[in-house]
Design goal:
CATH architecture of the largest domain: Up-down Bundle
Helix content: 40-55%
Largest sheet: 3 strands, mixed
CATH superfamily of the largest domain: dinb family like domain
Shape: globular
Strand content: 5-15%
Number of strands: 5
Strand order of the largest sheet: 4-3-5
Number of domains: 2
């Protein structure tokens, strides 16, 4: 068993994380296999990104090099989001849906990470982008509870996702697992999948949430 300490000092089992990430990547590949041509051109939850763009992005997490990242961030004048969007669209323009699905399967077990990413970030990235694809299409993609708890706790600890500012003063309570987080006076209740969506900045998750903190959180989007 191999362990790793993430950016917040939390020790995790690397073998388990690798297995979870591989399983989720293969599940997304199977999900994408079932999409019609018009669904690939549909908008995702990522503003300005199509389903094709998101799928292309998912193939980059264990393929992008440090050199490509540096070149991309310079081209984007230091804007990380702009760089990520450009790289995804460039790749989507080069590869067909079938090719991207094959790439997802090929690299499902690869442990290489994008520069600056921790062991859990590829898992979070895959889980969240699976919802970015599925929800606008009116499709359901299951998020396993154990993995979702680990992903959500990582997001809440990490400075990368902006959840600390977004959820300041809010207590989260899951309705599909014995899990809660936060000590705020405002409360939000809902499925772990919706809590993970709002924690990562997806307003679509608000539809599945209730509680005194929902209106307050909605104003943050």
């Amino acid at each position: 068993m191999s362990d790793s300490t993430d950016h917040a000092g939390v020790t995790m089992d690397l073998d388990k994380i690798t297995m979870w990430t591989r399983t989720e990547r293969l599940a997304i590949a199977d999900f994408l296999d079932d999409l019609d041509d018009h669904e690939w051109t549909a908008d995702s939850l990522c503003r300005g990104w199509t389903v094709h763009d998101v799928a292309a992005h998912l193939t980059l997490s264990n393929r992008v090099t440090l050199g490509a990242t540096i070149a991309g961030i310079l081209r984007a004048r230091g804007n990380w989001d702009r760089m990520t969007e450009r790289m995804a669209r460039d790749r989507a323009g080069r590869y067909s849906p079938a090719e991207l699905i094959a790439q997802l399967r090929e690299g499902a077990a690869w442990t290489r990470r994008a520069p600056g990413a921790g062991p859990l970030d590829p898992l979070v990235d895959t889980m969240i982008h699976g919802q970015d694809i599925a929800r606008p299409l009116g499709r359901h993609h299951v998020m396993p509870l154990e993995q979702t708890v680990v992903a959500l706790e990582h997001v809440l600890r990490s400075p990368f996702y902006g959840s600390k500012k977004r959820l300041h003063g809010v207590r989260l309570l899951a309705t599909d697992a014995e899990w809660s987080s936060g000590a705020g006076t405002a409360e939000i209740e809902g499925p772990l999948s919706d809590l993970l969506l709002v924690a990562t900045g997806r307003a679509a998750g608000l539809a599945g949430l209730t509680g005194t903190g929902v209106q307050r959180l909605a104003s943050a989007f």
